[in-house]
Amino acid sequence: MDSLEPKCTPLKNSYDACFNLWFEKYLTLTANYESGNDRKRVLARSKEQYEKDCGLKWLQYHSCLNEALDSRQLKPLLEAARNEDPLPEPSKLEKSTRSN
């Protein structure tokens, strides 16, 4: 899928490929550790690996996308949509999915 801004598409594709590769490894690793300190260590290492491999790619894509949002004057519309129908906070979302 292309980015909102065509010049950002190569950055998006690079980040998406990096993230997908990282996420596949993450799922494989975490499936082996259901709880405890080993799981915490694996998650911490996985986060560090993500930052090392994909962090810069995300920042580059995010920067390009923000420029596109500014140039197209879309930020006020996004902010209005967020105010009108905000996403739930992660902690509230977790509680609602646990109760279902």
From TrEMBL:
Chain intervals for the UniProt region annotation (Disordered): 80-100
Q: Which UniProt keywords apply?
A: Disulfide bond
- Record bears the keyword ATP-binding: no
Q: Which domain of life is it from?
A: Eukaryota
Q: Name one GO cellular component term.
A: nucleus
Q: Which InterPro entries match?
A: MDM35_apoptosis (IPR007918)
- Keyword Lipid biosynthesis applies: no
Query: Basic and acidic residues composition bias: which ranges?
Result: 81-100
Gene Ontology terms: biological process: phospholipid translocation
Q: Which family does it belong to?
A: Belongs to the TRIAP1/MDM35 family.
Q: What is this protein called?
A: Mitochondrial distribution and morphology protein 35
